Amino acid sequence: MRLLFRRRLYKPIINVTDIRTIQAMVTTSDSKTLDTHLDKLEILHKSEHFIVVNKDFDVVINSNDPERLSIYRQLSYKYPELANEKLTHGFYVAHRLDYSTSGVYLIPVTKAAAKSAGKLFEHKQTKKYYLALVRGHVLNRNVFTIDYPIGKDSRPEFMGIRMCTPDYDYCQDPRDAITKCVLIETGYINNQAVSKLLLSPKTGRRHQLRVHCKEIGHTIVGDYTYSDKTDTSQYRMFLHAMRLCLPSHLENIDIQTQDPFTEADARNNYVVENRLLSVCEGMELL
To answer: Is 98 a catalytic residue?
Structure first.
């Protein structure tokens, strides 16, 4: 069954022009630091053009704080000979992954590689696949498309932190956003119903997958921000960038990781009730 979720695009009622940007970082006893994780970077692929890593959850891509752990600090530690002193963080940036999201992340090594990758992302010529465990059992939907525009949440307490859809009058500058989805499994975490979704974003809006899952009534497990700060019992947010396909003229990249959200990892507390498709079968439907 293929369902399309679409909402009309409304112009924002509120136009906030002079507002503070609030940046929040939650520090816990399990926070990853330079002392504990500087040398813990999993390399999936390395060539003269690109490095592809398996980004850990709860790690930023880069930071101006010299004391904060980041992917680019890990890269500079592992490959000091490749760090470019002319670049602010030592390496080029082609795309982003949220702090809480894990998975496949690509770093261009050269200026030519950065230009090539940048154009491919800009012109939507890459393919990206994510796995998510979401709250509740997704019913009567096997393959479906979420088509909700996404804009900035202009409320002072959320500006710079949250995104939203135009259903809310505080949504500012909404833009088209499309995500294709396949239901892979249903099961339980701590006796609470969850579903495993394979997600493929066709646009690149900030927090797109997190907002889209919330808007269909199935917030991602462990998403502190979009659960309105209520989902705090899990050790992580259950969103993982599983595969990236980038057909650069310099090198064809097609990198995939393992599924981190399985019963085998005791931290997940996940029990499968119904396995509908394998991840590979799901990718063939997207």
So the answer is: yes
Q: What is the pTM of this model?
A: 0.89
Q: Which of 56, 58, 98, 153 is catalytic?
A: 98
In this predicted model, what pLDDT tens digit does every residue of 223-241 receive, in sequence order?
A: 999 999 999 999 999 999 9
Q: Say whether pLDDT at 47 is over 50.
A: yes
Question: How far, in Å, CA of 254 to CA of 242, rounded?
Answer: 11
